[in-house]
Amino acid sequence: MTNTDLFNNLKNLMPGDTRTETVVIQNTSPDYDYVKIYLHAEPVSASASDFLQQLTLSVYNGDELLSSAPANEPGALSEHLNLGTFVYGDATTLSVTVSAPANLKNRYSDTSGEIVWVFTTEAYKDSQPVDADPGLAVNVVPKTSSQPISLVVSNSVSSSHASSTSAQAASDLSRSTAQSVLVLDLNTVPLNPWFIAFLVTLLLAISAACLALIKHKKPTL
Amino acid sequence: MRHRTKAPALLLFGILLFLTMTGSVAYFVTTQPTHNLITTSSVGIALLDRADPTGAVPFNSLENINPNTLYSKIPYIENVGPEPVWIRARLSLIRRDEDRDAEIPDLASFIELGEPGTHWLNSEDGFYYYASALASSETTEPLFTSITFRETLIELYPNTEFTFTIDAYATQVKNNGTSPTNATWTEEGV
ipTM of the predicted structure? Predict the structure, then answer.
């Protein structure tokens, strides 16, 4: 188990097992008005693929099914899935269910496979969160000095889907904080380069249009 | 007419200036990978064969066996894996000839097992099933504690070498029936 392992309850599977791991994600940063959180899965290694394809992995965000696929495939998590917009204190609960077939062969005993999930967080200074597509946010005042995004991701083992309400999620979090906590740090992260490129392109296009208008002379009578 | 041409351009510059000053789309972003492991467990057993009740003396080969003589032999099974298991065992007696080996059928006609364990169920399918699940690190009660070769065996096969074999099997308890006799026994999974 790594120190960023969220699958504490998905260990020592036996053929026929179905296990669920609950992961609570909460915005605990008071320095930003809201954050957007995205999740995507990286391709699994070739050595783990044979084992993981025997298993079925389903991911729920609250009651919404995000992905259900063989565990060696990222499924819908191949894209950066938006888990939502979270103001300070807001939380959501991911339920991860893995099923091992009853006829899982003996050669997969004492085997492990790693699944890398990447959480991407965008932090905004804006009193009114906007639900725009990634990269299309407007009226956001940039920070002049960066501060850590305090985003807590913790485990809460459960055999059934946990409630997705903030109150329940917060309760789960308080019980499980000691088990596994990740804090995402913004200190050394630059601005999104795609948006910088977008801005530059926009400025150049408008400037070119203005110059063209200035240079245009109507025929005099 | 020149001021008419400049008016739209100034308007566009104004919009551009407004966007630049008040409409920034900048924000901070960070990523955090998590390395999540899914692992499987396993089952494992050890077949132990002793010649004395304390378990200190291992059972060795018998030579020049005599009919109707009780020989101490105490086989039992230990769960050396992390998971609870169902256990079953099968006994066979192989007669070794010069040119071939042959299993002797109807074992009970030729050997007698002393004090068979009460937890062991002699099934019609040829297996002995251990009635209860065996937790990790636990051992079964002895399958039997002694073996006696009947006179019929010695008379039928004089000066013969035999191999008495105990094959022990384990399968998982989880998701696999309520007793060893209704569990699924395959070499590949449940």
Answer: 0.78
